[in-house]
Amino acid sequence: DAKTTQPTSMDCAEGRAANLPCNHSTISGNEYVYWYRQIHSQGPQYIIHGLKNNETNEMASLIITEDRKSSTLILPHATLRDTAVYYCIVGGRSQGNLIFGKGTKLSVKP
Amino acid sequence: NAGVMQNPRHLVRRRGQEARLRCSPMKGHSHVYWYRQLPEEGLKFMVYLQKENIIDESGMPKERFSAEFPKEGPSILRIQQVVRGDSAAYFCASSPASTNEKLFFGSGTQLSVL
Q1: Pick from A66, A33, A67: which is nearest to A51 by CA?
Q2: Across the beta sheet with A32-38, what order do the strands follow?
Q3: pLDDT tens readout for residues A11-50
Q4: How far apart are the C-alpha atoms of A25 and A27, rounded to whole Å?
Q5: Which of A41, A46, A92 is closest, CB to CB, to B103?
Q6: Residue A19, SS3?
Q7: Chain A interface includes B102 (CB < 8 A)
């Protein structure tokens, strides 16, 4: 079973920031938070990951709370092409066996 | 700079037939992972292979399913005597090392069992 809890769905207006929350209250000290997304009928795409510090890359920002029990993925300027299912995953550094839950279906609307 | 290539994109089999799914990892990647996605479900890990070795097959059904990643050629996921419940999207991912970071996924093979 997934170790994370995410809302089933969210809407976001095009051009606005999309903030996707994730709860992972049972995360252990050596586990990372990974975010992937899956656009309809395609394979998942890596977005970002972090351990305890906030992270930013060209796609998104990841904000992890100080107690590490929750995090938020931020897409700063959502576009229609960001419509996808977003998966928040907790796991070790080098396992390869990611546990995908049901994710959050983000719909970006014009 | 081709990504992870999976073929066929769609595969139709009748119950009892064999299904072979192929995955060519990205150039330079020697680690391959197979996942299965049932309709309206998240992806489920099946197996992790390095060249000529199965590293973790904890998600693989005990019967009818097998995987290989030979020294030369693509990784193969083989399903014998398929049943309707095997109908799913099968995704392959690759990485240059054992990692959860930046797994590169292919576009998947949609298996339909009639």
Answers
A1: A33
A2: A9-13, A104-109, A84-91, A32-38, A45-50
A3: 999 999 999 999 999 998 889 999 999 998 899 999 999 9
A4: 6
A5: A46
A6: strand
A7: yes
